[in-house]
Amino acid sequence: MKPELNLRQVDVFRAIVKFGTVTAAAAALGSSQPTLTREVLRLEASVGFQLFERRRQRLHPTARALKLYHAIEEAYSGLDKINASLHRMRAASGEILQVSTLPTFAQSLLPEAVARLHREAPGLTIEIDNGDPRNQSPISGFNFDIGLIEGEYDDPTTEVIPLGLFRQVCLIPAGHPLASGTGPLHLQDFEDQAFVSLGPKDPYRLILDRLFDEAGVTRRLPVTMQSANGACEMVRSGIGVSILNPLTALGYLGDRVVLRAFAQAPGFVVSALHPVDRPWVDTAGRLAGHLKAICAEAQQRLQALQLI
């Protein structure tokens, strides 16, 4: 059985692939050309196949060597991430809070909560990742203290913190026929309307499609967007109407956009997640408290606007 590579051999191999000559690699490693030449010979004997072709005083990696090099670089990229994280920790003057959130909340719910938390803890560093925290797992490792999701979630590896229960609202371009009037809109009001829809796999898109299909209502779908903010921008541009989550919609109210209630509006649940095997940090609990308070304020605003 051939012996496994040690770290010194990996460093020698990487240096030669990068610099192309033993002399340059030796200088980079603080070694000598004769020493590195012997190490290359031992390295090839250790792996059991030729790593380099010698042409015109340069060492060219073989196809096998390039595959090995790419595998090594992938491993080193993980080490680079570890070191980058270490540098951030050293640079931070205080605690680091890691947040994973769906993009829609990074643009609606989270900014105000972060601002309130920073006023309380100005030395805090918050790292925000725009990704679905439900895609992480105990196997791959939870990389957040607080995660923000929509919808209900049940997993023994995470604690679920309810933040708010809402109902979706209608977004109408100012001047559109549906923008006038009072009271909630109904499914039939959207017959033959240009409708800005979310992506075909979005769970709320699927719910709305089923409601319209069951009611026999046909809409025109000129644009499909992958994000709620993108859909709001399309409505603001006058391309069509839409039905979206109220937290995002409120940010566009009055900006060439009218909001109206929707009689058959699906519920919209906002929750925070915390990995059960990750220690609670004080700022995570305080951020969750601010998020819950902002959701309650949004509910009051929606009620005042007669949108619920």
From TrEMBL:
<keyword id="KW-0804">Transcription</keyword>
<dbReference type="GO" id="GO:0010628">
    <property type="term" value="P:positive regulation of gene expression"/>
</dbReference>
<feature type="domain" description="HTH lysR-type">
    <location>
        <begin position="5"/>
        <end position="62"/>
    </location>
</feature>
<comment type="similarity">
    <text>Belongs to the LysR transcriptional regulatory family.</text>
</comment>
<dbReference type="Pfam" id="PF03466">
    <property type="entry name" value="LysR_substrate"/>
</dbReference>
<dbReference type="GO" id="GO:0043565">
    <property type="term" value="F:sequence-specific DNA binding"/>
</dbReference>
<dbReference type="InterPro" id="IPR000847">
    <property type="entry name" value="LysR_HTH_N"/>
</dbReference>
<dbReference type="GO" id="GO:0003700">
    <property type="term" value="F:DNA-binding transcription factor activity"/>
</dbReference>
<dbReference type="Pfam" id="PF00126">
    <property type="entry name" value="HTH_1"/>
</dbReference>
<dbReference type="InterPro" id="IPR036388">
    <property type="entry name" value="WH-like_DNA-bd_sf"/>
</dbReference>
<dbReference type="InterPro" id="IPR005119">
    <property type="entry name" value="LysR_subst-bd"/>
</dbReference>
<keyword id="KW-0805">Transcription regulation</keyword>
<dbReference type="GO" id="GO:0009089">
    <property type="term" value="P:lysine biosynthetic process via diaminopimelate"/>
</dbReference>
<dbReference type="InterPro" id="IPR036390">
    <property type="entry name" value="WH_DNA-bd_sf"/>
</dbReference>
<protein>
    <submittedName>
        <fullName>DNA-binding transcriptional LysR family regulator</fullName>
    </submittedName>
</protein>
<keyword id="KW-0238">DNA-binding</keyword>
